[in-house]
Amino acid sequence: MDLETENRIASILLREAAELRRKAEKEGVRAYLEKPNVRHRPNSRFLKATLLGVQQSNKAVETKEMWRARKKEIELEINSSYK
Questions:
Q1: pLDDT tens digits, residue range 6-44?
Q2: Quick one: 49 and 65 in the same domain?
Q3: Which residues, including other chains, have CB under 8 Å from residue 32's CB and lie 6 or more apart?
């Protein structure tokens, strides 16, 4: 996991902890005992869009690496033909 993702998750957790702390100041221990509000079904459109974005990004990186490797091969061929 990259640093940006870790920082984003940490900020979400800190925000939730601060909210729970404020709620506990008002309601006491009951705030910690309540079940969190969780959606039962994930947002499939969001997940599909996220996966598609990741796949496109990965493909772009692979293509860029392939062309970099090909350029290096051409340079090696040119250099070896001059020797």
A1: 888 999 999 988 988 898 888 888 777 777 666 667 788
A2: yes
A3: 20, 24
Tokens of 62: 């692979």
Same domain assignment for residues 49 and 83: yes
pTM score above 0.85: no
Q: Which residues contact 67 (CB under 8 A, 6 or more apart)?
A: none
Residue 23 has a CB neighbour count (10 Å cut-off) of: 14
For the record, the structure tokens of 23 come out as: 């709620």
Tokens at residue 12, please? 């979400």
CA dist 16 and 22 (Å) reads 10
7: left (phi over 0), alpha (psi -120 to 50) or beta: alpha
Q: Which long-range contacts (CB under 8 A, 24 or more apart) does 36-45 make?
A: none
